[in-house]
Amino acid sequence: MAHPALLTVALILFAVTSTVTTVLAASPAEMRGRAFAQTNCARCHSIDRHTQSPLAIAPPFRTLHTKYPIESLAESLAEGIDTGHPTMPMFTLEPDQINDLLAFLKSLK
């Protein structure tokens, strides 16, 4: 039977290795998109593959591709997303920001 402390260390190492591998595999555009999402979106939306959104009505980013083709979001991001609920701020992104955010969203599929 494994010692509990040894098992805990093994789980921590697995989690760290998995996170480092994911970060190392990410393109520069994905990393910039993730940074944008962390700064501007994570207060309400889940921006990872596992957690629930902090705001219940805000869909997790990992599910957006099931509702919208990711590429179709480019126009909305350029013109400003208007969601019909008052808690979503209006965002208008620059072309480079759009490409970065779309690259990040695609990485969550």
Automatic annotation (TrEMBL):
<keyword id="KW-0479">Metal-binding</keyword>
<feature type="domain" description="Cytochrome c">
    <location>
        <begin position="28"/>
        <end position="109"/>
    </location>
</feature>
<keyword id="KW-0408">Iron</keyword>
<feature type="signal peptide">
    <location>
        <begin position="1"/>
        <end position="25"/>
    </location>
</feature>
<dbReference type="InterPro" id="IPR009056">
    <property type="entry name" value="Cyt_c-like_dom"/>
</dbReference>
<keyword id="KW-0732">Signal</keyword>
<keyword id="KW-0349">Heme</keyword>
<dbReference type="Pfam" id="PF00034">
    <property type="entry name" value="Cytochrom_C"/>
</dbReference>
<protein>
    <submittedName>
        <fullName>Cytochrome c</fullName>
    </submittedName>
</protein>
<dbReference type="InterPro" id="IPR036909">
    <property type="entry name" value="Cyt_c-like_dom_sf"/>
</dbReference>
